[in-house]
């Protein structure tokens, strides 16, 4: 796995000049030519929906002037309802795949990324058999195809998909590979929630572009091939702090330890997004698709946010919050009622300042952000809403949403002693239960029984001896293969002050697959492993942490 801080420190300045001397993407990007199939279709599987999905470089116009090189999923419908495959409007992100619960889906995924970029698609939030789930051990090489075939068993909810290769997830997702996978079911359909133009996907990301409009990831341009000499060091991304970093190359791979923070907020792949809205109700389906940035969402006019759903389900009933915390990987389903506003009104969805990320007596954890990026917890505007026209459609907020099959804590087989998952720092790496990621079975793993109900307790330990911000960080923990309930949170007394600035923004109702755990916090989860046996992963969804090994496997035994 990747090299330690020492080698990063020594090499970082040399790497910068090397990268900038070979940074023209078009002259160096080699595409694969042959196409072999790593997983072949099953002739007995009859899909309701079949899609070809290709990950490949693409040149797009994001800002005025020079076009930007991104990596993007190109999709085409082979079979099924044309409404099942939609574009994110005017964006290189996407596509949006829309299915009904119970439908059978085939996706022919082709990796057409440059040499060195193995990839695999993870369907974040979907409950799938192990070989459909995009575990990094299934990553395919450029030129290969992986055929997914699965039935959608999830409840209604907005899931998403993104690459999941070992150590390369951060740079591939950052380059533009992210789509939405929206499931509906009869219960949701009966609610007649805002749809069509009134159901708006919002993918929140933070990005840094250089003077020639190219995406910079930890100081390196997207489309710059990995230099093989760096591969053993964990790839260029994890070791170069970058020439845009004012805080100094001497920090080596510190930014991969803290996570990437970009300078500008992008919504659906673009900066300065404005939603031109009518005087009526909208459904905003928000994904935090950032690599590491956490948001504290609030309306600029002081109205509370009304929420109808979270990661993996609708809520039982709507809830309101003055602000909502949203960490990487998490989703929110927002009921946005603009019917009382006058035409001409301007409104913003902001991210408020929070300090809960501060470690004990140290710098705020965003102190190492690259270039001019606002630090984590800084206040910023995410997007604007402009009330542009009158429409009279008046929808009522339903007071009951979903009849959720909620579990009871006392039914867990380990209710008295939850399974501990400790987050801590080892050397310069974040680890779970004291060990870095191993691809398959070498790591002593969590083993659970099919159909059992378990409590897990995520314990975000402090690291008193660590340098600077590394004493404590928020980690969004994501479990593959299951949707869980969050049943309790506790924090160490010495971190209670910072925690106060975030704690009222948790949306722990409903079913989730990603949960933010603040420094010094312990969060208990409750879940049932009732669908598939097999080897699944769970990890931090700060993608730089994930890539550096903050990931483990768990096995569901039949
Ligand atoms: Cu969205 Cu394993 O990740
Ligand atoms: Cu983390």
UniProtKB/TrEMBL annotation:
Has the keyword Metal-binding been applied to this entry?
A: yes
- Enumerate the spans annotated as Plastocyanin-like domain: 80-187, 420-557
* One of the Pfam families matching this protein, by short name: Cu-oxidase_2
| Segments for region (Disordered) | 22-43
Q: Which InterPro entries match?
A: Cu-oxidase-like_N, Cu-oxidase_C, Cu-oxidase_fam, Cu_oxidase_CS, Cu_oxidase_Cu_BS, Cupredoxin
Alphabetically, the GO molecular function entries are: copper ion binding; oxidoreductase activity
Q: Which CDD domains match?
A: CuRO_1_McoP_like, CuRO_2_McoP_like, CuRO_3_MCO_like_1
List, as start-end ranges, the regions of compositional bias called Polar residues: 28-39
What keywords appear on the UniProt entry? Metal-binding, Oxidoreductase, Plasmid
User: Is Aminoacyl-tRNA synthetase given among the entry's keywords?
Assistant: no
Origin, by domain of life? Bacteria
Q: Which family does it belong to?
A: Belongs to the multicopper oxidase family.
Identification of the protein by name: Putative multicopper oxidase
Origin species: Chamaesiphon minutus (strain ATCC 27169 / PCC 6605)
